[in-house]
Design goal:
InterPro entries: AT_hook_DNA-bd_motif, DEGP_PDZ, DEGP_PDZ_sf, PDZ_sf, Peptidase_S1_PA, Peptidase_S1_PA_chymotrypsin, Peptidase_S1C. The protein is α+β, with helices and mostly antiparallel strands. The chain is built from twelve helices and 31 strands. A hairpin with a 2-residue loop joins strand 28 and strand 29.
C-alpha cells in the first residue's frame, strides 16, 4: 500500500540511479549549430542556452510543440556572409532580402539563372617577358578566370586575365569542352579584354548578356564567376556601397568604378555583376586586401565597359581613354583664390603644369584657372555634379570622351575669361605603366646592357615594393617627370656583363644615360644608331650622378660578339630596333 501511494504522489526532485536523466528531444535547430558551422555562426547562441541551461520548473515537464511537416520559414541563420553558392544549377537561398525561406530557387536566383548560362570560364597560358634579361622570356604558367558572352559572338573578360597570353581557351557552364579563343582587343587602362570563338558549336544555346544602367547606392548586385575554392560556377551577393573615381591597378589609371561588399576572390576576375533584373552592371576586377578591411571588392561599371566596346567598334582597335594633359591644384583657400584674381562666385582649379607633348600645351598655361569643362562648372576641389546628392572628380567628364574628340574649356587668365576648343588624346608617360604586351627593347655594346625604364621593369628589378626599393632618381622620374617630346624614353644601363673590356664598370646598375659623346640620348633607338654609326676613337657615355663611361670604339664593337656568345644572347639588339 505504501509503495502504491508513493507512486501516485509527487515525483522526487532528484532522479534515482535507476532513472537516468533524459535529454530533451532534439529539434531541427540543432543542425544549424553543428561543428561544421561554428566558424560562420556569431556568438548569439541564445537558443542553445535556453534549451540546455535553463532550470527545470517543478511539476511535469512541458511537451515541446510538434513541428508541422512543412514548417513556416525560420529566421535566417546568423551567417556572416550573404553569399549564395550555386552547385549543379540550383541556387540555395539564404532568406533575408528574397522574402522566402525555402531552399529552392529564390526569386533573385530565378532571375539570374538565365544570364548565368552566358558566364564562361577562361583558361590562359601566359609567357611573360623577362624585363631584367630582355632577350629571354619567363617560364610559362597557366591561370583561370571568368568571362561572359555579349552580342556579336564576343566574350568579355579582364585584361590582366589574358596578359602576355600564348593560348586562350573558354569553357561554357555545364560543358566539358574547352574552345580555342581569339583575342580581339585588350584595353590595359580599363582592364577589359574582348575575345571571340570561331567554333560555331560554342555559340549554340548561349544568349548574350544585356547591360543595365549604372546602379545607385545600396542597389543589390550579384557577382558570378569561377573563383578559387571549387570548379563549378559560384555566386556572391552584396550591395553597391560607393561610386567614385577609382585607381585601376593594372592600368595605373583612374576611371569610374563601383565598390561593393560582395566577396571577389581570385578567379572572379572578368565575371559579370548582375542587378536584381538580371542585367549586367559591371565586371569584377580587383579587391582590397587589408587587415582593416573586409569584403571590399571593385567592379568596372557599364559606362567604362560601353566606352571600351564602342571604341573597338568605331576604330576596329582599342585607342584608349583620353585625358587632359595637365596637373592641377585645388583652389579651396580663399587667399589663393583672391591672389589669382577670382571673383567670389567663381570656382575652378589652378593648372600647375601642362604636358609639353599634349595638344593643349599650345593654348593652356601654368596658373590658368579651369572654370568649366564642356559647359559643366568645376568646383574648387575639382569635382562636378554627378547624380542627385553626389559629386565626382571632373576627370570623369574627360574619360567619357574618345581619343580625337574636341572639348570646350573655359579658363580664367589674368582676370579675363578665355574659351578654348581642345582636341583630346591619350596620355603618354615618360615611364610607361605597361608595355601593351610588347617585349622590352634592349641594346648591348661591350657588355653594357641598355634598356628603357617602365613600371614592369621596376617591378622586375625591385619586386612588388618597387615604390620603396627603387632608386630615388628613377622614382622621381616615374612620379613627376613629363616627356619633352613624343618619342622620349628613359634609357638606363641595366647591368654590365663582365668582360675584360669593361673592367671597373661592373657596379653600374640602373643608372640613366644622359648623353653619348656630348649628344643627348632621347631614346634607345637613337642611342643604338649613334653607337653603330660612331667613327670617333672613344665612346663616352655621360650617366646620372656625374658618372662617365669611356670605351675604345673599335675594341668595344669587336668584343661584343664574344660577350653575346658567352651569355647565350641571340642578338645585340631587340627586334624592334632592327626594323
Amino acid at each position: 500500500m505504501g509503495d502504491t501511494k508513493r507512486k501516485r504522489g509527487r515525483k522526487p526532485k532528484n532522479p534515482t540511479p535507476s532513472q537516468p536523466l533524459q535529454s530533451p528531444p532534439s529539434s531541427p535547430l540543432d543542425d544549424v549549430f553543428s561543428l561544421s558551422n561554428i566558424e560562420i555562426i556569431p556568438s548569439t547562441s541564445s537558443a542553445v542556452e535556453i534549451t540546455t541551461t535553463a532550470s527545470r520548473p517543478r511539476g511535469r515537464p512541458k511537451k515541446l510543440p510538434k513541428l508541422p511537416d512543412n514548417p513556416d520559414p525560420l529566421p535566417p541563420p546568423p551567417i556572416l556572409s550573404p553569399c549564395r553558392h550555386v552547385s549543379n544549377g540550383t541556387a540555395i537561398g539564404l532568406g533575408g532580402g528574397s522574402g522566402g525561406g525555402e531552399l529552392a530557387v529564390d526569386p533573385i536566383g530565378a532571375r539570374v539563372v538565365p544570364a548565368m548560362d552566358a558566364v564562361v570560364k577562361v583558361f590562359c597560358v601566359h609567357t611573360e617577358p623577362n624585363f631584367s634579361l630582355p632577350w629571354q622570356r619567363k617560364r610559362q604558367y597557366s591561370s583561370s578566370s571568368s568571362g561572359f558572352v555579349i552580342s556579336r559572338r564576343r566574350v568579355l573578360t579582364n585584361a590582366h586575365s589574358v596578359e602576355h597570353y600564348t593560348q586562350v581557351k573558354v569553357k561554357k557552364r555545364g560543358s566539358d569542352t574547352k574552345y580555342l579563343a581569339t583575342v580581339l582587343s585588350i584595353g590595359t587602362e580599363c582592364d577589359i579584354a574582348m575575345l571571340t570563338v570561331n567554333d560555331d558549336e560554342f555559340w549554340e544555346g548561349v544568349s548574350p548578356v544585356e547591360f543595365g544602367e549604372l546602379p545607385a547606392l545600396q542597389d543589390a548586385v550579384t557577382v558570378v564567376g569561377y573563383p578559387i575554392g571549387g570548379d563549378t560556377i559560384s555566386v556572391t551577393s552584396g550591395v553597391v556601397s560607393r561610386i567614385e573615381i577609382l585607381s585601376y591597378v593594372h592600368g595605373s589609371t583612374e576611371l569610374l568604378g563601383l565598390q561593393i561588399d560582395a566577396a571577389i576572390n581570385s578567379g572572379n576576375s572578368g565575371g559579370p555583376a548582375f542587378n536584381d533584373k538580371g542585367n549586367c552592371v559591371g565586371i569584377a576586377f580587383q579587391s582590397l586586401k587589408h587587415e582593416d578591411a573586409e569584403n571590399i571588392g571593385y567592379v568596372i561599371p557599364t559606362p567604362v565597359i560601353q566606352h571600351f566596346i564602342q571604341d573597338y567598334e568605331k576604330n576596329e582597335a582599342y585607342t584608349g581613354f583620353p585625358i587632359l594633359g595637365i596637373e592641377w591644384q585645388k583652389m579651396e583657400n580663399p587667399d589663393l583664390r583672391k591672389a589669382m584674381g577670382m571673383k567670389p562666385e567663381q570656382k575652378g582649379v589652378r593648372i600647375r603644369r601642362v604636358d609639353p607633348t599634349a595638344p593643349e600645351s599650345g593654348v593652356l598655361k601654368s596658373s590658368d584657372i579651369v572654370l568649366s569643362f564642356d559647359g559643366v562648372d568645376i568646383a574648387n576641389d575639382g569635382t562636378v555634379p554627378f547624380r542627385h546628392g553626389e559629386r565626382i572628380g571632373f576627370s570623369y567628364l574627360v574619360s567619357q570622351k574618345y581619343a580625337g574628340d574636341s572639348s570646350a574649356i573655359k579658363v580664367l587668365r589674368s582676370s579675363a575669361i578665355l574659351n578654348f576648343n581642345i582636341k583630346l588624346t591619350s596620355h603618354r608617360r615618360l615611364v610607361p605603366a605597361h608595355n601593351k604586351g610588347r617585349p622590352p627593347s634592349y641594346y648591348i655594346i661591350a657588355g653594357f646592357v641598355f634598356t628603357t625604364v617602365s613600371v614592369p621593369y621596376l617591378r622586375s628589378e625591385y619586386g612588388k615594393d618597387y615604390e620603396y626599393e627603387a632608386p630615388v632618381k628613377l622614382l622621381d622620374k616615374l612620379l613627376h617627370s613629363m616627356p619633352q617630346s613624343p618619342d622620349e624614353q628613359l634609357v638606363v644601363v641595366s647591368q654590365v656583363l663582365v668582360s675584360d673590356i669593361n673592367i671597373g664598370y661592373e657596379d653600374i646598375v640602373n643608372t640613366q644615360v644622359l648623353a653619348l659623346n656630348g649628344k643627348p640620348v632621347k631614346n634607345l633607338r637613337r642611342l643604338a644608331e649613334m653607337v653603330e654609326n660612331c667613327d670617333d676613337e672613344f665612346l663616352k657615355f655621360d650617366l646620372e650622378y656625374e658618372q662617365i663611361v669611356v670605351l675604345r670604339t673599335k675594341t668595344a664593337k669587336a668584343a661584343t660578339p664574344d660577350i653575346l656568345a658567352t651569355h647565350c644572347i641571340p642578338s645585340a639588339m631587340s627586334v624592334d630596333l632592327k626594323a
